[in-house]
Amino acid sequence: MQEKHMTYAGAGVDINRLEAIKSGIIKKGLTFKRKGFGAPVGDIGAYAGLIDLGEFALAMTTDGVGTKLMIADAMKKWDTVGIDCIAMNVNDLYVMGVEPLAFVDYVSIEKPDDELIRQVMVGLDEGARQANISIVGGETAALPDIIKGFDLAGTAVGYVGKDKVVTGEGIAPGDVVIGLPSSGIHSNGYSLVRKVVEKSGLKYTDPLPYDKKKTIGAELLTPTRIYAEVVPIFRKYPVKGMAHITGGGLMNLRRITGYGFEFNDPLPVPPVFTWLQKLGGIDDEEMYKTFNMGMGYVIITDKESAGAIVKMTDGKIVGRIVKEGCTVRGTKMW
Predict the structure, then answer these.
(1) How many angstroms separate the CA atoms of 238 and 306, rounded?
(2) Whole-model pTM?
(3) Which of 39, 133, 155, 300 holds its CA 20 to 30 A away from the CA of 228?
(4) E strand or H helix at 233, and its extent?
(5) Strands laid side by side in the 331-332 sheet
(6) Residues 6-64: pLDDT tens digits?
(7) Taxonomically, which superkingdom (predicted)?
């Protein structure tokens, strides 16, 4: 019998603990900073790190695909995880008003596997095409004593005018929140996803209950959406803040403002989330604090610009900025 009220922390990923480590041990331990040309702009903790290059700032971010790779291994299907890897990086650049330029990848593998590497490169190339970036290098390492299976991560760089960085500092109550749909689970929360599926006795090769034409594994491997269409938006309109909704769900919004959010008309929740929630007995709050729940990217702007921005996207106005807290259709999330 499936246990009730499954949680991300119970699956081995404690978001609060990880954030405490990032803001405490890591941030306090990294004290040296270069001076002059190439000095850092801002502090550690933003979606991307910025480096002073005069009129412009060079932006850098790094991320991986996570335990979604274990489902790719189970399905012997690795041709989309490269898209995930690039998406997780470039989406973190977009939110700061940065245009991505280039990418380097790092593949660590238990033992050489030509077909696996070939498929990974297919996905990386497609991700680069979608993001309009060049893959300028990378590394493949065989680490049999450390790695079981394989891991995929990468680093993206981009540029932004130093006076054009989107920081969230101008956000104020009454501003409009625009949500852009996700393509599915993206690349977060998979420790919990896998626990839910595997403890239920299902296999990734089983038919998807709500779409018999697709397997569970195929649905869970749907690649992360790359939000390249926001580049002309933040160049043309007064975007005050943006967020990439990754692990931690709506908690990511705390990274851009101390104000709160009222989602009175959220985007529809895709069936993959409602299926997982029911299968794992997961409560609403845990779902919204773990997954994107159908909203993978958020744009915050003033009322005057909101309509024009919506017309440039497939999203919609989902709510507004309030003084404090976060609610979804009246249900308090924090």
Answers:
(1) 10
(2) 0.93
(3) 39
(4) helix 230-236
(5) 239-244, 295-301, 176-181, 316-322, 260-263, 326-328, 331-332
(6) 786 776 666 666 666 666 677 677 889 999 999 999 887 788 999 999 999 999 999 99
(7) Archaea
Question: Which two structure tokens, joined as six digits, stand for 183?
Answer: 């393509």
pLDDT at 234 exceeding the cut of 50:
yes
C-alpha 219/C-alpha 231 separation (Å) is 28
Q: With contact defined as beta carbons under 8 Å apart, do 127 and 70 qualify?
A: no
Burial letters 168-202, b for 16+ CB under 10 A, else e:
beebeeebbbbbbbbbbbbbbbbbbbbbbbeeeeb
Q: CA 298 to CA 146: how far, in whole Å? A: 37
**What are the domain boundaries of the chain?**
33-161, 176-332
User: Exposed (0-12), middle (13-18) or buried (19+): which is 314, by Cβ within 10 Å?
Assistant: exposed
pLDDT the model gives residue 334: 87
**Rounded to an integer, what distance in angstroms lies between the CA atom of residue 212 and that of residue 270?**
16
Contact at 8 Å (CB) between 188 and 292? Answer: yes
**pLDDT tens string 173-198:** 999 999 999 999 999 999 999 999 99
Separation between Cα atoms, residue 276 and residue 292, nearest integer Å: 13
* Superfamily grouping for domain 33-161: PurM-like, N-terminal domain (3.30.1330.10)
| Domain 176-332 superfamily per CATH | PurM-like C-terminal domain (3.90.650.10)
**133 is written with which tokens?**
């970036």
The token duo for 185 is 């689970």
Residues 6+ apart with CB under 8 A from 18: none
CB atoms within 10 A of CB 228: 17
Give me the residue label for tokens 């990032």: 22
